């Protein structure tokens, strides 16, 4: 009996304390906030997270049948496949650890501390390359995949830089008409399922996909779709892939046939979101005539009213907003080529009239042979990409000549980067300085171009000086496995406000002609590097 009074006393004191706290808190809530209290937010840096690069698997070969005539077998030989991973920056210091994994997280290749800066493996499916930050600095990494097919429907080299996952991807290239096959490949390397949305545009406008516009890709899974299954008979296509619930990567495997003659194959990678200015970093064309064999093409799509665009919407009531509401019959776009000697215009292609939502190809026949960057400036947001071709030798006199092709997307202006190079290609880096004004380009950009061999040894270190409005082509040493561009940012290295774009053109000699591929620096999703943080406003207690 003597214990209970003590417990009751302690309980009573606890209730008194609790009541006092509630009373004080209530008094604070009822107290007015001083008007002279100003809470100033502070920008706090957000440390970089891990980097992931998603690589598609080997080229998807058409099925062959034992009973077919070997002369017409669509896949008489297997593909030769390789994936490369490269680390740059920090004077070439390797990362401590970085792995190559399958989409499902299964290990494929791992470099241990102090390992090489480059690695190569033979992929059997999609890969994910992951790298952690070093000393709160995002790693400078790159990966690429390549498949080489000596004969058959997919004759040629199919190469692409591995891409960073994102929630929106614009794929400019391909088609679904007879003789052209476009296979959409979507990979989900994340830990949650991703709901995929598709939009397709063709020569006659946006395609009504109905129920074929939505799919779910499971975590660590992939989706493979033939565009012709739901958007048939399109001579030209642009595809937009969006994702909700997870970050994904998307590619378009495009192959063409002229009857039984190979017309080329390539992987279309994501390009820059719609904008009024687009830049394609690398265009490598041989001498050609208008509508002639081997002529390059520039593909353009002007987005109609209400379609997503990269630029922020105009304020209501502005002249631009009023004009957008009324719409236009056509959108005017100007096309300029940045070559070794400065800006070049192609007669008949310097100005293009675009109908919103209709995909247009501009024939680039007649453009002098060489390497260029392409600048498109339009009155409304557009997307852009280029196609180049190499003509081979006919198997027999009178036969059609085989063709090899490569698609290149538009990319934003950048600050250098690194690209892993496929094996077996003679590579040329193309660096262009894009001025603010093409009519009066001024200024220069400086940087350093470095190349590394398979062992990670530096085999090239070349200072580059690019005049605004021009493109500089730098052949890379034989056996180069990676190339890195470091852009100087000192005041005396940048004049005139010119921005840099760059990429790589690779060619290989085959018995029946040349193979060609292009590599572009991947489009980077928006990254939050700072957040505004402010102290919570406290309410007075008296």
What features would you describe in this structure?
- It is a single chain.
- The protein is mostly beta strands.
- The chain has one domain (54-61, 75-307, 333-531).
- The chain has helices at residues 3-30, 319-326, and strands at residues 42-45, 51-55, 80-88, 98-102, 107-111, 118-121, 127-131, 140-149, 156-161, 168-172, 180-187, 194-202, 205-206, 214-217, 222-226, 238-244, 249-258, 261-268, 275-285, 297-302, 331-339, 342-344, 351-354, 360-363, 370-391, 403-409, 416-420, 426-434, 444-452, 458-467, 471-475, 482-487, 499-510, 513-520, 530-533.
- The strands form eight sheets. Strands 19, 20, 21, 22, 23, 24, 25 and 26 form an eight-stranded antiparallel sheet that branches. Strands 10, 12, 13, 14 and 16 form a five-stranded antiparallel sheet that branches.
- Strand 4 (98-102) and strand 5 (107-111) form a beta hairpin.
List the helices and strands and how they pair.
Blueprint: H1 3-30, E1 42-45, E2 51-55, E3 80-88, E4 98-102, E5 107-111, E6 118-121, E7 127-131, E8 140-149, E9 156-161, E10 168-172, E11 180-187, E12 194-202, E13 205-206, E14 214-217, E15 222-226, E16 238-244, E17 249-258, E18 261-268, E19 275-285, E20 297-302, H2 319-326, E21 331-339, E22 342-344, E23 351-354, E24 360-363, E25 370-391, E26 403-409, E27 416-420, E28 426-434, E29 444-452, E30 458-467, E31 471-475, E32 482-487, E33 499-510, E34 513-520, E35 530-533
Antiparallel strand pairs: 1-35, 2-7, 3-6, 3-8, 4-5, 4-7, 8-9, 10-16, 11-15, 11-17, 12-13, 12-14, 12-16, 17-18, 19-25, 20-24, 20-25, 21-22, 21-23, 21-25, 25-26, 27-32, 28-31, 28-33, 29-30, 29-32, 33-34
């Amino acid at each position: 009996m003597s214990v209970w009074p003590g417990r009751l006393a302690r309980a009573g004191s606890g209730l008194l304390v609790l009541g006092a706290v509630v009373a004080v808190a209530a008094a604070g809530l009822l107290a007015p906030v001083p008007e002279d209290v100003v809470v100033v937010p502070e920008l706090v840096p957000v440390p970089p997270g891990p980097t992931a690069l998603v690589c598609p698997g080997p080229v998807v070969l058409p099925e062959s049948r034992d009973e077919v005539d070997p002369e017409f077998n669509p896949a008489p030989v297997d593909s030769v496949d390789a994936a490369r991973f490269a680390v740059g920056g920090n004077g070439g210091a390797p990362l401590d650890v970085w792995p190559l994994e399958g989409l499902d997280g299964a290990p494929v290749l791992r470099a241990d501390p102090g390992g090489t800066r480059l690695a190569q493996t033979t992929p059997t499916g999609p890969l994910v390359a992951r790298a952690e930050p070093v000393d709160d600095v995002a790693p400078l990494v790159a990966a690429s995949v390549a498949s080489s097919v000596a004969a058959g429907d997919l004759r040629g080299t199919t190469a692409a830089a591995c891409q960073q996952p994102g929630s929106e991807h614009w794929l400019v290239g391909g088609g679904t008409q007879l003789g052209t096959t476009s296979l959409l490949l979507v990979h989900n390397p994340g830990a949650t399922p991703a709901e995929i949305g598709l939009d397709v545009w063709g020569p006659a406008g946006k395609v009504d996909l109905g129920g074929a516009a939505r799919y779910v890709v499971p975590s660590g899974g992939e989706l493979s779709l033939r565009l012709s299954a739901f958007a048939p008979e399109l001579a030209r296509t642009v595809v937009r892939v969006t994702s909700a619930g997870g970050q994904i990567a998307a590619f378009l495997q495009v192959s063409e046939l002229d009857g039984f003659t190979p017309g080329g194959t390539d992987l279309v990678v994501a390009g820059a979101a719609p904008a009024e200015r687009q830049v394609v970093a690398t265009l490598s064309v041989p001498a050609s005539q208008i509508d002639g064999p081997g002529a390059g093409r520039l593909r353009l799509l002007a987005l109609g009213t209400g379609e997503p665009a990269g630029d922020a919407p105009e304020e209501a009531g502005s002249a631009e907003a009023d004009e957008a509401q009324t719409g236009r019959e056509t959108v005017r776009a100007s096309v300029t080529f940045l070559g070794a000697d400065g800006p070049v215009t192609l007669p008949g292609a310097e100005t293009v009239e675009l109908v919103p939502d209709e995909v247009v190809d501009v024939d680039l026949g007649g453009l002098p042979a060489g390497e260029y960057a392409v600048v498109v400036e339009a009155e409304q947001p557009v997307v852009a990409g280029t196609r180049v071709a190499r003509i081979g030798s006919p198997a027999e006199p009178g036969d059609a000549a085989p063709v090899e092709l490569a698609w290149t997307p538009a990319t934003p202006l950048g600050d250098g980067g690194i690209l892993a190079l496929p094996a077996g290609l003679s590579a040329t880096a193309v660096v262009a300085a894009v001025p603010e004004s093409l009519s009066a380009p001024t200024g220069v950009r400086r940087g350093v171009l470095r190349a590394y061999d398979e062992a990670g040894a530096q085999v090239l270190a070349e200072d580059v000086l690019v005049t605004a409005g021009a493109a500089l082509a730098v052949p890379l040493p034989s056996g180069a496995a990676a190339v890195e561009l470091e852009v100087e940012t000192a005041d005396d290295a940048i004049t005139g406000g010119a921005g840099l774009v760059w990429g790589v053109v690779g060619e290989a000699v085959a018995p029946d002609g040349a193979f060609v591929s292009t590599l572009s620096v991947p489009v980077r999703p928006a990254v939050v590097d700072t957040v505004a943080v402010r102290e919570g406003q406290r309410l007075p207690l008296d």
